[in-house]
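Project standup — Tuesday

K.O.: blocked on the structure for the chain from last sprint. Re-posting the sequence here as requested.
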Amino acid sequence: MSGTTTSLPAAFGRRAGLLLEDTDAALERCFPGDDGSRQPLHTCYVPADLVTPATAGEWGGAALAAAEAAGGLAALAELAGVEEPLRGELVARTERKLREEPVEDLRLDLEDGYGERPGAEEDEAAVGAARTVAAMALARHRGSSPQPAFAGIRFKSLEAATRDRGLRTLDLFVSTLVREGGLAEAGVAEDGLPPGLVLTLPKVSTVAQVEVMVEACRALEDALGLPSGRLRFEIQMETAPMVLGLDGTCPIPAMLRVAEGRVTALHYGTYDYSASLGVAAEFQSMEHPVADHAKQVMQVAVAGTGVRLSDGSTNRLPVGDPAQRREAWALHARLVRRSLERALYQGWDLHAHQLPTRFLANYAFYRGSFDAAAHRLRVYRNRSVPGIEAADVADEPATARALARFVHRGVLCGAIGEEELESEAGLGALELATLAHPCTPVRTPTPGDHRP
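H.V.: unblocked you, prediction finished:
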């Protein structure tokens, strides 16, 4: 200690600690930060009764065939704005991706995409969805066919008209998965649930609906012998009351509090939300001002909580004549890039033909800025070492973390290889993950890692 005289009483630090004890605990509990695990680049929604363990591979084959008919992935890369120096490399990465893991997150839809069916028919579909998800997890574990890293169902909402049906579907799906899926016996998961399981709760409007979902998860865990907190879910933001509640405040923070750590993500629903605000069909899109406002509210509400965000979808599908396909591909690539620039790192894809531009746009986003980010990280890491080149940007620790998180996402999604990370940034994968998430114990999964 220096001999400098201070003015605050000696006990003031202890008093400050007592006064801020509750604040410290609340910050630690409510704002744990992102855990550095893999986030899927997209979610693909398919009616549950149309999904089989072959679906992901079929989508990849359809995507490659559509690209070939349009002049090849290189032609789509040009449409997606991939710069020439990177084009060959990113085309190769995209082709490999479409063969090995064309769908990262697959949602077997029992809501809007499935529609209203007789009760017995939806019962059968819910049970079948569980068996399909189990079969996909087994196939991925064995490496026998292209399978999504994440999969699950979207069941009907907890609004009055669909509540009983949604809860029954959820129950049938989870119960069948645990009791009949065979994943524990195969060594995939001790509790019988796939590591990448995702449950999607749509059309949430109130905190009470989230509370009911939490109670349903607890009841299922108790009945099935699952660990407490094992069942988690994502919320779809499709209604105006999720942005501005009945009491004039944004209910998202309260939803996260009552969820007790069970909410994994918020997904923006482009068309339901736009329609709820009266936007005419012609003008409904991911880039409408009402969409941007809603997503910005969501973004602020979940910042630092570890809850992730997903943008929505575009319904302009590349399935028409060549001119229409080119226009739809260019639009999709631009919208994917736009979302990434706004820190929305996930989106929805509604058709196999959207996959090439999804991956090309993502890979171009991360690779296009990698060299500059790697240089700055190298200089920051060695800033106190004599003789190391000076940076033309004086990065503070917070900026260095942001750079590291950007590069870490690029590694996790397969845009950046670990050998490139080492050669360009002078960092190993673990060191990068630690720099990106210094307060969170992180692991460094490979791009194909099946664990969430």
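K.O.: great, moving the ticket to review. The beta strands are 42-47, 105-109, 150-154, 197-201, 233-237, 263-268, 308-310, 347-349. The chain has two domains: 42-367, 369-436.
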